[in-house]
Amino acid sequence: MENDRWLYALALSAVASSVSGLLVPLYLVQIGGGTAQLGVNAALSSLVGAPAAVFAGRYADRTGNRRGVVLTALVAAALALVALPFLKTIAAVIVVNAVLAFSLAAIGPVVTMLVVGDSPEAEWNTRIARLNKLQGYGSTAGLVLGTVWTVGVGAVLATGVTQETLFVLAAVFGVAAAAVAFRSLPRHADLTVGPRRASRIATLLSRTSRNVRDDTFSFGTTRVFWGVRSLSRRRLGGLRSQLPAALWVYFAAAFLFFTGFAVFWAPLPVYLTDRAAFGSGAVFALYLVNNVASTVLYDGAGVLATRHDIRLVQTGALGARAAAFVAVGVLGVLGVGFLSTGGLGPLLAVAALLTVVGATWAFIAVTGTGIVSRLTPKETRGGVLGLYAALSAVAGALGGLLGGWIASRAFDLAFGVAAVLVVAGGLVVLLARHLAPDAKPTASADAAPASD
């Protein structure tokens, strides 16, 4: 496409969604929500994403009105952002946030259709990578904005008012995204999407979309749509017999560690504000540190995964992440007085641990896609990668509920359970040696580092 200005609408939307992704849990805590409510919020946001992506994608396929679907979703997201600061009940915030999550998830697959619409297939990788890079920049900018706003404005205004004004600012970005999209979205994008092309798109998305948001806030709903879209009924029915046992074993391992990740993340905002006595600005800064740690290591993770036993790389990353989970819990148990001061020392301690958590995600994301790709026949690879994303979404919903429920009894117990699940998943990967038969596998395009 000659005019790609509409891509900037998606960057603006990413800023808004990045701000709201952390602001909503903090706001829930501010209005009286606890860990159980945060768990429900996280679970519901994960569960609505995949159906939204599939519904919107299929509707756009059937009607051809891709511009209309994207505009409707952006407007719905903007309206949800506008409404959030006026809501004062926990249930209302959770429901409206689910609407926001549904709208944002609906955008992904249709935007991908527009990105690759009239481009030669040889350019798809570059164009999808550019889209994800702009969205990645937007997500990082959102966390920077949240940090600066809550620190600066929070020094003058009360916490509740600061959060409400930040919602207003996020809504401004959401409305701006809808306005830019209205003016610049292409009206036509010629793309006939059969199973082969859908599989190709799903594979490209898995190689270029390893954004940290998949780990902290949401799961790969766009990849779910394209994966399902690539599987005909005949292929879907034959998957059970076609796929090797090693892949099913890996799926079991992935379900365990993805559940563990969500158990950790769901109650974390309450832990940081209540147990550690950090303000909203400090919490945004910590999530920003986690984001940056992941982003800067994707290339290195890809190189390491192509030079060493991919099984050992992932298991090592899972072990380090589990240790960081435990350390966060131990810090709360042994250093309650230290944490409750909310000063620079506790902030640096937690930042160091979340840096480890973020860094390990880069290696887990890269190696996970590599393992699934190597164990899957080429003709069904995109579909299976979509199923892998769906599995992570289901595990995220279960983990969110479990993490919120356990943390309502004890934070250290929740973080300990998260670590146990991650270690269990790592052990399954480690023991299933046939996942990586070579100690030093050859480089694979499917295991290439992400461009974000």
TrEMBL record:
PROSITE patterns: MFS
Residue ranges of every copy of the Major facilitator superfamily (MFS) profile domain listed in the record: 1-437
Pfam families: MFS_1
Molecular function terms from GO: transmembrane transporter activity
Keywords linked to the UniProt accession: Membrane, Transmembrane, Transmembrane helix
Stored SUPFAM superfamilies: MFS general substrate transporter
PANTHER family assigned: C-METHYLTRANSFERASE, MAJOR FACILITATOR SUPERFAMILY TRANSPORTER
Origin superkingdom: Archaea
Keyword Membrane: yes
Signal peptide location: none
Name listed for the protein in its UniProt record: Major facilitator superfamily (MFS) profile domain-containing protein
UniProt xrefs under InterPro entries: MFS (IPR011701), MFS_dom (IPR020846), MFS_trans_sf (IPR036259)
Transmembrane parts of this sequence: 7-29, 35-56, 68-87, 93-116, 137-159, 165-182, 243-265, 277-298, 318-341, 347-372, 384-407, 413-432
